[in-house]
């Protein structure tokens, strides 16, 4: 059933750091009656700025993006504009990602390999009912989950782990976060102890698996 042509279109802001992926998703969304992509962002900071200026109905965002990731952007937008429907479109299907997204304000989660018709289902569902989770994600949520990264590490430790995984030295991390190099080293030791990991390579693999950095 097509929407009434007199109704106001559902205005969407789309965020993904890959231009080709974003263009493909935009093309699919533009084919849906009553849906209008009003802006595109390449990272979380740009997304926040666009949402503040355009006040869309729906935000569809990837998780892993430069400068500010999708989870942080979702949290920021949800705190300031709670009426905006925040829908994650991601390649990550672990319960950890889904729960982090929802805890920060996402109302839906869709996989990037989902069939195109699911895009319309997701957009219409979050507008009509306030939520949408693809069948794959719903199934994951029913399975026992491993501890999330928020269960295992503090916010500061997550920040430091992300920078370690990007290959940054203690002095660089200290400068960026306004800490002393010694404090960074203490945090790194505590992260290793808490995660039971013994080297930087293992920390990096953990950060990739949790989606803090891209492979």
From TrEMBL:
Span of domain Response regulatory: 11-127
Phosphoprotein in keyword set: yes
Keywords in alphabetical order: DNA-binding, Phosphoprotein
Positions of post-translational 4-aspartylphosphate modification: 62
All copies of domain HTH luxR-type, residue ranges: 146-211
SMART domains per the UniProt record, alphabetical: HTH_LUXR, REC
Keyword presence, DNA-binding: yes
Protein name listed in UniProt: Response regulator
């Amino acid at each position: 059933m097509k929407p009434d042509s007199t109704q106001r279109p559902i205005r969407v802001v789309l965020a993904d750091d890959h231009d080709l992926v974003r263009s493909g998703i935009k093309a699919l969304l533009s084919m849906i009656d009553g849906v209008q992509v009003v802006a595109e962002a390449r990272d979380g900071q740009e997304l926040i700025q666009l949402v503040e200026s355009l006040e869309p109905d729906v935000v569809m965002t990837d998780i892993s993006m430069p400068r500010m990731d999708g989870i942080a952007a979702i949290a920021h937008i949800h705190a300031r504009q709670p009426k905006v429907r925040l829908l994650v479109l991601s390649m990550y299907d672990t319960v950890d990602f889904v729960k982090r997204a929802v805890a920060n304000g996402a109302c839906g989660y869709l996989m990037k390999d989902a069939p195109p018709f699911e895009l319309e289902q997701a957009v219409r569902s979050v507008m009509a009912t306030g939520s949408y989770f693809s069948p794959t994600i719903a199934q994951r949520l029913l399975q026992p989950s491993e501890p999330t990264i928020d269960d295992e590490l503090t916010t500061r430790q997550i920040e430091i782990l992300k920078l370690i995984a990007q290959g940054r030295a203690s002095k660089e991390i200290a400068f960026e976060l306004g800490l002393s190099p010694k404090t960074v080293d203490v945090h790194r030791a505590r992260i290793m102890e808490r995660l039971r990991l013994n080297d930087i390579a293992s920390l990096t693999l953990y950060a990739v698996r949790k989606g803090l950095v891209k492979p």
